[in-house]
Amino acid sequence: MLTAAERELLLEAARAAxxxxxxxxxxxxxxxxGALSRPCGAFVSxxxxxxxxxxxxxxxxxxxxxxxxxxxEMAVAAATQDPRFEPVRAAELDGLAIEISVLEPPYPxxxxxVAVGRxxxxxRHGGHSGLLLPQVPVEHGWDRERFLAMTCRKAGLxxxxxxxxxxxxxxxEAEVFGEPVAAERAR
Length: 187
Fold this sequence. Notes:
Dna Ligase, domain 1, 4 helices, 4-stranded antiparallel sheet, alpha+beta
């Protein structure tokens, strides 16, 4: 678990890294210390502050770099390299909210063990792999089977591939936090 100060530092570092890249400046900021110096996977998602629409999301599950460096790198990648979206422009950055998911290491899991809202999911089969973060099924109102099916779809597999004996399922947990969006979607 990260402290409130560590979460705030990660959010500030993510935004500063994106701002530096968009201004064609080298990134700067404090060196990693404490929990932020341990190697840890992370995803950074960018959402519209008003509509909460996804604008970019990229991450890494397994890393060797300190968490702070991973977050900086994934923030820039989410803003500039997500193939689903055009790169973020400097003029739109203020309208985006940053969400960070700090990942625990993945572990083998059986389909019936997957808990919506608790587990993220990785599906692997035949050279294909797909990952969905734990907050995704909650945001879409999916049950466990729909979550499994949509992770298969993300991997480019048939939606029922998770039922195959040779399909690998990995679960993981994540600490998810972010900047505020419009009325936090009326939560």
